[in-house]
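Field reference: sequence -> structure
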Amino acid sequence: MVLDTLVLVDQTPDSLATAVLREVSEQFGTDAGIELHHSTLALGRAGPQAPAKVPIGEFGHLLLPAGSDGDAFAASLLARLLDFEAIQQARGRAARLSSLYQASQEFTAELDLDRALRVIVDRGRELTGADICYLSLTDFERGDTYIRISSGTRSDAFDRIRLSYGDGLGGLVAKEGRPYYSSDYMHDERFVHVVDAQVDSEGVVSVVGVPLKLAARVIGVLFIANRYHSTFGEEDVAFLQALGDNAAVAIENARLYGMLDRAAQLHRRLTELVLTEQPLEALEAAIGDALQLNVRVLSGQTAPAEGIETLVSAGPTVLGSLWLDVARLDEERRMALEQAARVVAVHLLKDRAVTLAALRTRGELLDALVSAAMPTDELTRRAAAYGLDVTVPHRAVVYRGDQSGVLARVLPGAFVAGRLGNTVALLPATTVVPAGELAGVGPALVGPDGLARSVREATRIFDVAGLLGRTGLITRDDLGVYALLLDAQRAEELETQSRSLLGPLLEYDDSHGQVLVPTLEAYLDAQGRPKETAASLNVHVNSLYYRLQRIKELTGWSLEDAEERLQLHLACRILRLRQRRS
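Structure field:
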């Protein structure tokens, strides 16, 4: 099928539409038609009279001659459309970020304060599509904030607004240093309304304000407003915050040009590197050259114990950090580092947007692989499109949380996807598995079925190892006897045997609360040391002796017998692990 061989990242809506129509004709004849109303692709071509309608998901139908079987083609087309949609969304985010980069260049190019402020509000209004964009600055001597410039206003009323800290939306943003937004400001009771006349005169209904921050200091507030009811999502606020972060840098450049000359040059250099899509290592080198220091950009890694670490963030979201091999910084280097962190944040935001789009489509493929939701040949073709050759032995490795950024740097060619809140990497059998805080490692197997088994086993190993408190790379062999829990049937048998062995204590605990079984396990964990056991249970040692005596009375066990202790310890541990997994 021609569609399956298309490289989607090279397609436009028009070229993809042409390919779809050609494929429909080749598969079902020139009389066949299609009705498609997809978010990124709309098609319409009349079919035969009284056509057989084959649904393409929720997006439309194939219009085929009676008796035609188009189900497989429709399913394949739907999958390609969803992949193309994800790519187009990633392109949209990248275009928005590219606009942000260009705006950042314009901001930092202006060292005259008035011209810089004008560029900020004009570009802010243009990039967000808002009716109004305006900006306030903090008056540190008077302890309030005032509107300094606006774009899109009908009068100069806004330019005369002053707000005390905490008053109105702007005063609250300036006071607390975090974004606020409202879809109906005039009726929003969260704010102290002191300038409603000016706001009403402009017809403002919806408004967002983000702080212009340098370190912990709020130097102003950047606003966008609409004259109609509109809602603002987290992505809108994060984008405006990123714009505001770069605007704050530009304002400080204009105010303190002499001291920040080196920092401004560094910012322009880094922005150029980002615009030309240079790797993160190039940013590290440029920052290091400017500061004459050893600099590392950390995204998901732990910083060395010694040195200075500066967080890289976009609004409230921490994206990584900049680490410098030095004990302290002078004022000029500190300012340069803050600017560098903002540009690095733009780079990491772009990487995150692309990674999330890739992980979503890869995650869908991984889910299909594990659940065998597609035929083997189709899974093989789809995997190959992502560079995953299922005919070669691969092992699955499950890492805790989102480790995609780290793995992308360590293993640039690996297949990495998110699953069940964690990260799964499919690695060729010959690849050295990167270490992590905890990772479950499955066996090296071949083919879609084999890879699915490896993913399932790696996930179960990860779960059991986590419950046991293990760290590092864990394989089936590392679990010892607990590897039996990886097999569902054996795990049920072990639980049944354990419940039978501990039956008298479980029966007692059912009617008296969970007392004796936890006491027995804690005692065995402490290797029979009463004081240590009592401390772990937070009870007096006399209470412990009473419980141990009760255990002996109910069971007749000898807790001094090594064989009985081993069986009891395993039974307690197995029950606890099974209960925590259920």
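Note: Residues 2-90 form one domain.
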